[in-house]
Amino acid sequence: MTHFVYSQHRVALAEGEVYRNPRMFSVPEAAATSVRIVGDWPKIAAAYRKAGVEVVTDAPPAADMPPGTFLCGSDDEIPVIPENYRDLAWPELRVLARQCGARWAINRTQAFAAIEAYLSPETPFVPSP
User: Fold this and answer.
1) What are the tens digits of pLDDT across the range 82-128?
2) 76 lies in a domain?
């Protein structure tokens, strides 16, 4: 049983829940048995419902972080993207890019694309297969 949580907000994950960034959504995950969506993501909810997956929606939590702080997520934690992320050493940059949805960032250009797609809602981004 796989329970996915789509959120752009810091949320507590229950035992067995797996975080997903809603901006990186393209199709429902085949392994999903239930989905919790935090915030207004009607296309994600509709896609999972069409696939026969139970969907629960929650209102986003009250803002508890200062303006200019950007979050992205991973299965383990939701790190803060530092303002100077372009200056990070490759190992740290690669981890941050993966947490933002790039499964196969093999260079700085791909890592920056993943992070910047997360930061800019109008930038289309297709996660690595």
Assistant:
1) 888 899 888 888 888 887 777 677 889 888 888 887 777 554 444 44
2) yes
Write b or e for each residue in 38-57: b if 16 or more Cβ atoms lie within 10 A of its Cβ, otherwise e.
bbebeebbebbeeeebebee
Q: Is residue 78 part of a domain?
A: yes
Distance between CA atoms of 74 and 87, rounded to whole angstroms?
Answer: 21
Q: Which of 58, 83, 101 is the endpoint of a domain?
A: 58
Residues 7 and 49 in one domain: yes
Q: What is the DSSP letter of 8?
A: S
Instruction: Tell me how far CA of residue 43 lies from CA of 22, 25, 26, 120, in angstroms.
Output: 10, 9, 10, 18
Task: Tell me what pLDDT residue 115 has.
Answer: 84
Total domain count, the chain? 2
- pLDDT tens digits, one per residue of 11-54: 777 888 888 888 888 999 999 999 999 888 899 999 999 999 99
Residue 127 forms part of a structural domain: no
Domain ranges, residue 108? 70-119
